[in-house]
Amino acid sequence: MVLVVAVLIGLLAGWGFYSSEGAAKAREREARLAAAQGDGPPELAPTLEVEIEVARAVPSADVVELAGRLEPVRSTWVSAEIAGRIVAVPALEHAPIEEGEVLVELDSSLPRAELIRAEASHRLAKAELERQQRLGKRSVASEAELDAAIAEERRSYAALLEARTRLGHTRITAPFDGLVNALDLDPGTYVQPGTRIAEVLDRSVLEVTVLVGDRQVGSLVAGASARIRVDVLGGAPFAGRIARVAGAPVDGGSRYPVVVDLTPPDDADPARWPLPGMVAQVQFEIGRAPAIRLPARAVLDEFELQYVFVLDAEDRVRRLRVSTRPVPFRPDRVEITSGVEDGARVVVTAVDQLRGGMRVLVR
Question: Among 100, 262, 287, 313, fewest CB within 10 Å belongs to which?
Fold first, then answer.
């Protein structure tokens, strides 16, 4: 009787443990895990939920934005070429100026006197040369006298040209149309050769230089379009053009300068047009031939090899080895060069939890 009672108590205890809530949940988890791994009944639902992206080989265009400062396409300091005293300053600082307009005028008294002397000497030398040529035709003058007259005429002509040039240097003019950015001289100031007179900026074309990396520079070519946005002017984009792409990095680093030109259209509003010195955001649109691009998180790296997981018609996982390369300016995406077919459903989340043959829930 004691033995029978002990057996009945053991059976009741085993039944109670088997039918408890904890045991039921444990059996359910084991069944779901077996089903997800393909070893259990097919009617049990998988428990791992994933997101997918359909691989499509389409032409992709990436827009990237880099900051730079607008500068005039040309800027130069105009300097004095002769010594002299300033007698007039017709130009105004921070005012527009046209090519050939006078910036500063120097005293021309001495250069003008030198020109008069040079002109007189040249007329005399020219007359003497003509006289020697007439005498030479009559065999009266010697060849030595004729050669000396020729040399004197050439010397006096050179002195005349020099005097004219010095007189012209008394009027210091603008080399091109632009803006007088700096001019801080007054009448009476004595200047020496090389003294800076004024800084002139050519604003007909503005340019901005941005630095790109070695993986990005190959996607940019001269002549391609770009958009320039200036926040202080409201952020509306202006049409620009890539003027130059550097063939070597600056200062021995890994950044390559790219110069973008900004030319005003004929109907541009001067009040709304960018000015030199403004900070600009340069937008490049980079396109490629049709290619499959996926989120970088979809790629699993194992022992220097790369894999992605694709789903079949029954939402079972299959692992594929792939080759990739980075997408310029987009570190969050990669380009699949081989291993994935167009139209494949690629898992992009929880890739480190996937195993071949698992069934998953597609969200």
Answer: 313
The verdict on 68 and 212 lying in the same domain is yes
Q: Full-prediction pTM beyond 0.90?
A: no
Structural domain includes residue 242 = yes
Whether residue 80 contacts residue 192, with contact meaning beta carbons closer than 8 Å, is answered with yes
My answer on whether 296 and 275 are in the same domain is no
Tell me the backbone φ, ψ of residue 262, rounded to 5 degrees: -130, 105
At residue 249, the pLDDT reads 85
d(CA 258, CA 281): 13
281 and 296 in a common domain = no
Spatial neighbors of 301 by CB under 8 A, at least 6 apart, are none
- d(Cα 234, Cα 246) in Å, to the nearest integer? 31
H helices of 141-192, where?
Answer: 143-168
Domain of 243: which CATH number? Answer: 2.40.30.170
Q: Does the CA dihedral 149-151-156-160 come out positive or negative?
A: positive
For the residues 88-108, what does the mean pLDDT come to? 93
- Strand pairing report for 196-212 and 225-229: unpaired
pLDDT in tens, 271-291: 888 889 999 999 887 766 678
Q: What would the pLDDT profile of 226-240 be if each residue is shown by its tens digit?
A: 899 998 888 788 999
Q: Which domain holds residue 307?
A: 34-60+290-362
Reported as a single tens digit per residue, the pLDDT across 210-221 is 988 877 787 788
Write the CATH number for 358: 2.40.420.20
Distance CA 84, CA 146 (A): 40
CA end-to-end span of the chain? 60
Judge whether 152 and 177 are in contact, CB under 8 Å: no
Is residue 209 within 8 A of residue 68, CB to CB? The reply is yes
